[in-house]
Amino acid sequence: MTGNSASLHVCILGGPTLWRLGAQALLSDRPNLALVTHAADLTQVTESPDVVLLDDSIANDWLPSLAASLPQTRALVIADKLNEATLLAWLEQGALGCIERNASLPELLNAIRQVAAGEASLPQAIALQLVTRLARQAPPGKSNFPEPLTDREREALALLAQGLSNKEIAQRLYISVRTVEGHLASVYDKLGVHSRTEAALYAVRQGWVTPN
Fold first, then answer.
1. Do 10 and 105 sit in the same domain of this protein?
2. Does residue 210 lie in a domain region?
3. Which residues form the domain of 194?
4. HSE (CB half, 13 Å, CA atoms) of 94?
5. Cα-atom radius of gyration of the chain, to the nearest Å?
């Protein structure tokens, strides 16, 4: 994984040929994407892309194979319509994010960047419902932190658990994205977690975030 958005290889996988070609044309002139390819299925992928935009029509068939054959590739599922059950199933099969097909180009590019960076990218409308469901299924967590969170760290964590991106958290708290990243890195270290989903689960289980 390159970690540099200017050199990302994105592969559009599955779905109708015309849709793949259209998505490729839409993304190919983005200055932060170095290579955009497409393939009908995983057997046609000849290189290891950084991010795969996986059509929902083949997600269930190819997600397990993708994790096994291209472990460094991160999957973002493109779906006509998302719901909690299908989203959870894709995440359990190895997808790192999901986005609806009618999302705007800036939303898609942001999702690609998040997934490439190893961050979960989920629709805000159902992210909190999903995290709450997972939290209820998880065993009870500890009630005290090894090291207390600052007020700002707790605010950033609560917004993260609502499904907001780092940019949206920064706008909400009137701070820079770099400052948000610093707060969340500190949160992860203090909680002993390694992902946005784990941190969000902790916040829900502590009662800091509740479903609308």
1. yes
2. no
3. 129-205
4. 20
5. 17
